[in-house]
Design a protein that fits this description.
By secondary structure, the chain is mainly alpha-helical. It contains 12 helices and 2 strands. The chain has a two-stranded antiparallel sheet with strand order 1-2.
Length: 292
């Protein structure tokens, strides 16, 4: 007996045959779209490589054998002076503390701003629903501009130091975390908010008592993840005169040969710190989200 299936036009036909034809048609379309995307990707890569090659001071292919020349020189000098590396690591701990302080303050300030922006830009929770799009565009603007660009502008206005770094990282953090916070808040249960509305609670009370207790674990998890990112960002900003361990690394690399042991010591200190923060934040996020 042959199974009979009705098509979209009401005509009868063998069910298995129709299903097989539809599946083969889907496979053909997927292969066609995949081939088009692959060709587009290859074309973009080739054109980008040619453009970069034409703008380089030297040829990429010609300089490829020298890629490992500088790292090997740094490592060999550090190995020859390996007895001094632990002392150099300890000497740069104060700069590392400054870097961590910059990351912590900027994460706290950016996280608080992100909380407000997220609640004001979430549909169903915003105090001014007509301005939801405005707050969303604000967050887009904050995270669209890289921290280093904001920092360079602030250095011109305020001078060097940790303050421009804190402001630059906090602004970018508020945009990045605000987007994530808003997505979490959109999935919050609105029944507590409706109950608080029925007893005359203000908007702030509804958010504080009805929404934040639901989203706090995920918000804190994202904030810890962002803190890891901000530690690296604050170290990078040290290269443009923002202080911290990045500034020490820039000075050591500028001196060149003879200070490469210090470069390796700073890299090791920064690497160990980021690994430690990553492990601690992973455990903290697991406790917050999964309760164990």
């Amino acid at each position: 007996m042959v199974d009979i299936a009705f098509g979209p036009q009401g005509d009868k036909g063998p069910g298995p045959t129709n299903g097989r034809d539809a599946y083969l048609d889907l496979v053909r379309r997927r292969r066609m779209y995949g081939g088009i995307l692959l060709m587009l990707f290859v074309a973009l890569m080739a054109s980008g490589f040619r453009l970069a090659e034409s703008r380089n001071a030297g040829g990429f292919i010609d300089g490829l054998p020298q890629v490992f020349a500088f790292p090997s020189e740094v490592i060999s000098e550090a190995w020859a002076k390996r007895a001094e590396v632990p002392g150099l690591i300890w000497a740069h701990v104060p700069s590392l503390i400054e870097t961590i302080n910059i990351a912590a303050v900027s994460t706290l300030a950016g996280g608080l701003a992100a909380m407000v922006l997220a609640l004001l830009s979430t549909r169903g929770l915003s105090r001014w629903p007509r301005l939801t799009g405005v707050f969303r565009r604000m967050m887009d603007a904050f995270r669209a501009v890289p921290e280093i660009v904001i920092a360079l502008v602030l250095i011109y206005l305020l001078g060097g130091g940790p303050v421009p770094a804190v402001i630059a990282i906090a602004l970018h953090t508020s945009g990045a975390l605000g987007k994530l916070f808003s997505e979490v808040a959109e999935n919050a249960d609105l029944k507590p908010v409706e109950g608080l509305t029925s007893v005359g609670a203000t908007w702030g009370q509804k958010m504080w008592l009805g929404v934040i207790p639901q989203v706090a674990p995920n918000w804190l998890s994202y904030a810890l993840l962002r803190f890891e990112i901000n530690v690296r960002a604050s170290a990078i900003l040290g290269f443009v005169g923002e202080g911290g361990i990045g500034h020490d690394l820039k000075l050591a690399m500028q001196w060149g040969q003879g200070r490469y042991d210090e470069v390796v010591a700073i890299f090791l200190l920064l690497f160990l710190t980021i690994v430690a923060i990553d492990r601690l934040s992973d455990r903290a996020r697991e406790k917050l989200v999964r309760g164990r």
